[in-house]
Each structure stands twice: as C-alpha cells, then as structure tokens.
Give the backbone structure.
Amino acid sequence: MIEIFEAIYERYALADASIDLRGLVSNFYFGQAPPGSPVPIVTYNIVGGAPEYTFDATLDRVTVQFSIWHDTYIGVMAIYDALTTAYQSATLPYDTGAHVVCRRENVLGPEFLEDVYQITTDYEIIHHLAAT
C-alpha cells in the first residue's frame, strides 16, 4: 500500500507530465490538508480496493480519490485538467511488480463549498505482482 502512495507522489514530484499540475497547486497532500492550508491544493487517499488472486499473480486493485480545492471555478477546472494529464493512463513508478493501469473512474463537481470550489475524482490503479 505504501508503494502506491509513493508512486502517486513521485509522479507528482518528478514526472514531466505533471509539471503543469505542480505549477497550479500550492501543496499536494496525502490524506487531509492541515487546517488553514491555503488553496489551491490537492489531497489524495485510497478509498477502496482489494487484492485479486490468480494462478500466477496477484493484482492489487485500489481506488484512489483526489480532491481538488481552489477559490475560483476556472482554477479548479485547470487543476482537474492538469491532474488528468498527469494520471490518466499513466505508468506509475513501482519498485516491484509491474503497473497495469491507472484510469479515471468518475468525477464529482465542481461544487461550491462555502468559500472554495471542490472537484473529487477517483482513479483505479491496478498493480500486478508475481505470485510468491
């Protein structure tokens, strides 16, 4: 599980594909942002998943939810587009096994919540591990 979190953050921090995303957000947090964090921010967490076992491998299937926060509608949509560019059909860096797919499952929003806009989008990540 930790390897998935690290791969998501490494894609954000190091990959050329996420350069637009890094330029649009002030912080990229696992779990929750600290209280009072300035927008624009993105948070991510695993919200579901289960291993699947086959004769020769294990598929680690997880759903990762990204939440995007910005004080303008245009800003939240720009971050959503950059997040899609960085993660849709991306090959995430893993130390073990082989990445199979990272695909967007759904999106909710943008919604206006008190003083910020929020978009929530889920990605399914399937990680292929050889049988042990």
Remarks:
- The mean pLDDT is 85.
